[in-house]
């Protein structure tokens, strides 16, 4: 084998050392000065941003979200400029204060906490949440979580303003996108002209309690119109039901404990606000159980075991479909969106 002259070998070593130092000193090709930090932006390791007058360097490649600001996420950003050695991508976002989603009921199994922000399916995946996942969740006081059936905030929406140890069969393992924010859902509806002001006050109070953003108020108004003509049809009513939403005694008695737990007081069947609260509690449960507003109306009127052609104990047909058609049409006429 031919030997390399000593002088040539020394020269090669010098050149190799020089090139090593030169290329080591270069920043990674993907690194860049990205200007002011912004949410929903893809950042690479060693990218630099400015935030609140300071410079930060990216420690881990990620897509930013509201709640992951550089000053509060040391796992993602370090103060100052310069390069850093990449670390493995986290399987869970660094948020420590936010809504926590659980794989199993009763807050069991894998848990992932997310801060405020809007999360598409890809962002949920990046945070460690797969598609069609979540059986229970914890919501901080004063926060709102909107869970969507489809990606990009489509399909059925379920709103949570408090902890839920079991989200129910209709929501379980169906989460594909999420919105999380502090405060109550923003109301984007106006009072229908035919709804009396006091009735609108009642239904909006309930809507705010359930965190529905106004749409539930429209539905309740439509139910009250059908059940009692906004209270005008109550005198002489043959029904033993309670007032505005005509909840029958046996039904309301079965819900008394749920009413107290939800509203923090005992039920007063003579109080119009409580009548709306009770009816809303029952109707919301039917909607969740049977999967849609229309189906919820069918069973609010016909009972849990209603089916087309069902009859009562006297053999009379139970026309829950006609009831649901009328109420749903009124609700849509008011601007209902679901």
Q: What do these coordinates show?
A:
This protein is α+β, with helices and mostly antiparallel strands. Helices cover 33% and strands 18% of the residues. The chain contains 9 helices and 13 strands. The chain has helices at residues 6-25, 121-126, 197-210, 215-228, 249-254, 256-263, 272-290, 293-302, 320-333, and strands at 33-36, 42-43, 48-51, 54-58, 62-63, 77-79, 99-104, 108-114, 117-119, 136-138, 143-150, 154-160, 177-182. The strands form 4 sheets. A 4-stranded mixed sheet has the order 1-3-4-6, with no helix packed on it. The protein has a 4-stranded antiparallel sheet with strand order 9-13-11-12. Strand 11 (143-150) and strand 12 form a beta hairpin. The radius of gyration is 29 Å and the shape is elongated. The N and C termini lie far apart (83 Å). The model is unreliable at 12-30, 85-95 and 236-240 (pLDDT under 50).
Q: What characteristics describe this protein?
A:
single chain; 4-stranded mixed sheet; 4-stranded antiparallel sheet; 18% strand; 9 helices; alpha+beta
Please outline the helices and strands:
Layout: H1 6-25, E1 33-36, E2 42-43, E3 48-51, E4 54-58, E5 62-63, E6 77-79, E7 99-104, E8 108-114, E9 117-119, H2 121-126, E10 136-138, E11 143-150, E12 154-160, E13 177-182, H3 197-210, H4 215-228, H5 249-254, H6 256-263, H7 272-290, H8 293-302, H9 320-333
Parallel strand pairs: 1-3
Antiparallel strand pairs: 2-5, 3-4, 4-6, 7-8, 7-10, 9-13, 11-12, 11-13
Which structural class matches the secondary elements? Answer: alpha+beta
- Count of distinct strands: 13
**Proportion of residues in extended strands:** 15-25%
SSE succession: HEEEEEEEEEHEEEEHHHHHHH
Q: Termini, distance in Å?
A: 83 Å
Q: Order of strands side by side in the largest beta sheet?
A: 1-3-4-6
Biggest beta sheet attributes: 4 strands, mixed
């Amino acid at each position: 084998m031919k030997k390399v002259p000593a002088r040539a070998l020394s020269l090669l070593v010098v050149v190799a050392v020089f090139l090593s130092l030169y290329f080591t000193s270069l920043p990674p090709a993907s690194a860049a000065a990205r200007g002011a930090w912004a949410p929903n932006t893809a950042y690479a390791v060693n990218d630099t941003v400015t935030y609140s007058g300071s410079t930060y360097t990216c420690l881990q490649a990620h897509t930013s979200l509201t709640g992951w600001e550089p000053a509060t996420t040391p796992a993602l950003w370090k103060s100052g400029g310069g390069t850093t050695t990449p670390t493995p991508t986290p399987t869970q976002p660094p948020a420590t204060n936010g809504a926590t989603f659980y794989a199993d009921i009763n807050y069991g199994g894998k848990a992932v906490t997310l801060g405020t922000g809007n999360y598409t399916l890809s962002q949920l995946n990046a945070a460690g949440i797969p598609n069609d996942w979540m059986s229970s969740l914890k919501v901080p006081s004063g926060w709102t979580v909107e869970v969507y059936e489809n990606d990009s905030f489509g399909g059925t929406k379920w709103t949570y303003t408090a902890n839920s140890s079991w989200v129910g069969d209709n929501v379980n393992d169906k989460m594909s996108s999420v919105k999380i924010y502090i405060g109550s859902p923003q109301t984007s509806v106006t009072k229908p002209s035919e709804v009396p002001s006091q009735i609108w006050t009642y239904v909006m109070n309930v809507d705010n309690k359930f965190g529905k953003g106004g749409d539930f108020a429209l539905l309740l108004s439509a139910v009250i119109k059908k059940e009692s003509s906004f209270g005008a049809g109550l005198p002489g009513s043959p029904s033993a039901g309670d007032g505005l939403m005509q909840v029958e005694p046996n039904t309301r008695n079965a819900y008394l404990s749920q009413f107290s737990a939800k509203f923090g007081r005992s039920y007063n069947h003579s109080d119009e606000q409580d009548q709306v609260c009770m009816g809303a509690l029952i109707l919301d449960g039917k909607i969740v159980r049977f999967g849609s507003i229309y189906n919820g109306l069918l069973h609010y009127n016909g009972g849990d075991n209603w089916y087309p052609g069902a009859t009562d104990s006297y053999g009379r047909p139970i026309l829950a479909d006609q009831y649901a058609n009328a109420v749903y049409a009124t609700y849509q006429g008011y601007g209902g969106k679901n």
